[in-house]
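Renewal narrative, Specific Aim 1. Our central claim is that a sequence can be written position by position from structural information alone. The example that follows is taken directly from our test logs and has not been curated for this report. It begins with the structure tokens describing the chain, in the order in which they were read.
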């Protein structure tokens, strides 16, 4: 068979999203960031918004998103992405603006910015990657770390009496008047990937329709931080993360 026959449209199974460049990803094997990047790139492209999208990436593994998606980006100080996104969207209401944040960034140092932007109902999308740990800086305990989960700063497991309870930040955001969509998804299976992409599309459409703040939490694995193989990390996530952070819509206003 000729190579030209193989690449005919009817024979094409998969192609790299057009908005993802050729830079080699630095993420660890089994990391969810690459899949989430792919979905965001596909949604922006399918909406025809590549020239009008502005992403905001703060500190953490999430910051490197600007290195892989060929759209306009702004880098925010640690935790301040929703505040910066607010300014960008208000000054450029025709732009599709989103933040891309990890749990240590969004639910710790950025709690105030996140809650108040959502409470105001800013027309932005917040993509929240929750792997229950500070992945980039050495695997320390995050606000989302599960009870009993061992990290670099709680090697014997998170202790409620000492460390408090894990923070279900999306549940809090769903209670705010300014949010129109708060959903918790994942990307560890084909079905999960499809559902996450669907909710990302809805979130971006909400922002352009002026409906308020949309939050897409993606419960993710951090194989390196959890000291597991990628396959074991996914299984551990399903058995431990999902019961505490159940998947599904927490708020969805049409």
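The sequence written for that structure reads:
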């Amino acid at each position: 068979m000729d190579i030209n026959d193989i690449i005919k449209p009817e024979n094409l199974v998969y192609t790299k999203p057009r908005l993802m460049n050729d830079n080699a990803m630095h993420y660890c094997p089994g990391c969810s960031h690459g899949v989430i990047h792919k979905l965001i790139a596909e949604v922006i492209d399918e909406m025809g918004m590549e020239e009008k999208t502005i992403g905001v990436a703060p500190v953490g593994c999430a910051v490197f998103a600007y290195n892989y998606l060929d759209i306009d980006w702004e880098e925010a100080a640690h935790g301040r992405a929703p505040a910066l996104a607010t300014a960008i969207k208000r000054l450029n209401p025709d732009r599709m603006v989103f933040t891309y944040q990890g749990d240590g960034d969004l639910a710790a140092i950025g709690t105030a910015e996140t809650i108040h932007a959502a409470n105001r109902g800013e027309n932005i999308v917040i993509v929240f990657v929750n792997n229950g740990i500070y992945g980039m800086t050495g695997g320390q305990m995050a606000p989302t770390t599960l009870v009993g989960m061992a990290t670099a700063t709680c090697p014997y497991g998170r202790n409620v009496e000492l460390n408090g309870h894990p923070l279900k930040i999306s549940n809090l955001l769903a209670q705010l008047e300014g949010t129109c969509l708060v959903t918790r998804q994942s990307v560890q299976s084909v079905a999960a990937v499809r559902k996450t992409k669907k909710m990302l599309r809805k979130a971006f459409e909400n922002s352009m329709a002026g409906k308020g703040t949309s939050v897409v939490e993606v419960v993710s694995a951090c194989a390196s931080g959890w000291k597991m193989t990628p396959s074991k990390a996914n299984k551990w996530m399903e058995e431990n993360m999902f019961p505490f952070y159940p998947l599904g819509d927490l708020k969805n206003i049409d």
